[in-house]
Known about the structure:
Oligomer: single chain
Number of helices: 8
Mean pLDDT: 75
Strand order of the largest sheet: 1-3
Shape: globular
Low-confidence stretches: 1-13, 111-120
Order of helices and strands: EEEHHEHHHHHH
Distance between the termini: 68 Å
Amino acid sequence: QRQMCIRDSITSCHNISSEELEKEFNSAYYSYLGQLSRYAYMKVGDYDRARDIVQDAFVRVWNYMLKGKKILAMKTFLYHVISNLIIDEYRKKHTVSLDVLVEEGFDPAYDESERTIDIHDAGRQMLLLNKLSPKYGGILSMRYAQDLSIKEIARVTRQSRNTVAVQIHRGLGKLRLRANAQAYALAH
């Protein structure tokens, strides 16, 4: 058994066996894998990269738990880890030339029109959300795409619940304005 130590508001002191630790981790993995994968995909726009980010997050959480730390709010903690990994991904993202892509097997003549049609509406909505400042877009994404509660978002962002609620309200207002402007532009 391991003695767990207090690190922050997400952890607490507990004795836990290796079997209990593995059971807790597996439960979190199977419960949250789909939600976390969708969240990461919406943020990075690349399925393979999103899957890598989620895997990396679970590895980090497992290593964190192996150090003897108990996570009290697993879902919140996982979103926090993934959000940080996505921020890291944005920071290191760089452009690649078409020649390099072709050398790696990319075929610009390949037709993905059916797939594009299937994801067109969701993509348009995500574009609107991504055009908002990260302050509002991230909060709205956590609230409506990941179905996190205001309390959980407050833990992930380390803000008060009131601040999160105000940001959701203001973000929805800004999103409505952008959606109305886009609908008007398409109509005229």
